Structures are given as C-alpha cells and as structure tokens.
Model the fold of this input.
Amino acid sequence: MTVHNLSENHSILNRFVAEIRNKNIQGDKIRFRKNIERIGSVMAYEISKTLNYKLEEVETPLGISSVFLPTDSIVLATILRAGLPFHLGFLEIFDGAENAFVSASRQYNEHHTSFKIVVEYLSSPSIEGKTVLIVDPMLATGGSLDLSYKTLLARGTPSVLHVACIVASKQGIEVAKKSLPEEKTTIWAAAIDPYLNEEAYIVPGLGDAGDLAYGKKM
Done:
C-alpha cells in the first residue's frame, strides 16, 4: 500500500490546509467549506496523474489533435457529512464520475466517554471493477473508513481504491493498512499528524470538520 503525504511537497495546498486549521479563521464557515473544496480539487488533480490513459483524436475547427485522455470508470464515494465540500472539489475535476454516499458517524454513549461507528445510509452505483475514491476530510481512528469500505462492498469490488483525506493520524493510516486491500489501495493525505488524544481526535488536527462546516449536531 502506498501512502502519499502531500505536505512534504511545497504547494498552494499547504495554505488551504493552514487556513482550515487556524482557529482564528475557522469561524468563517463559508471560507472553511471553500478551502476544503479547493483542497479536494488539488488532491483530485494529483490522483489524476496515476490513472490509465488512452490516446484519442479530437477534431478542432482546423484539424485533428491527438491527446491522452483518462479511461478509468470513477466512483467518488464520500463519507457524510463532513465530506460534502470535499466531494464537490473532487467532482469539479472528475466531473464525469459516478457518486456514492455513506453516512458513517460516531455514536457516543450517554456520558460521551466512548463511541461506536454507525452506518445509517448508503447510496451507491455498482463499483464492480471500477476505480473508487473514498473521500473524507479526517482519517482519525480508521473506524469510519473501514466500515464505509465494507458497506460499499455490497455494491461490488473495485479494481483500484484511492483514499483521500485532508488530515490523517499515523494510527488511522496503520489501521487502514490492515483493513484495506494492500495490493490495490493508495492513501493520499494533505497532512499526517502524530497522534490521537483521549477523545480520539487528531492532534494537532483541526477539530470536528463536520461541525466547523455545518454547525453542531445533536
């Protein structure tokens, strides 16, 4: 399994990530969501470099142009709800992709001292033999990713799997390495942080991406 830490390369992506982390900027929900969307577009472009391409001819008003075009059948699979603006960024680049949505979220106990991951909704086309991109801003414990992938398998088995997240923990990446098919999975992260705190939030992280984008939930 290959892991790409895009923060190791200097690019404009770093500024977008810095802004969504910055507690003095996070209160601007429109800016927060837009930065997540822009991060999605940049990461989609990076992933596009790894796709399969075929030489095709395009007729212009003055002649014929030859160009390599991607041939992958792509399904963008987003984990709700924090993944919605991230999804839009990917869709801006992969505008012909099919779309899947999984609602995987933490369900806490009465005292908010522990939680389990619950999937309440799946909307997906067939993913059989396709290139699937699971996009979720935060890869913390890896539990949501693992359960979301297993839920998507009800719609088939992908030939290639890309996991895209904005901030990942080292622990979450290790869980992903054990739970996802090693030979066909690539993980893309805009940043990788060192650990999780006692509440299983990434540190330094950025907080709860869903709450920051859409407000607190019950």
About this structure: The first helix runs from residue 13 to 21.
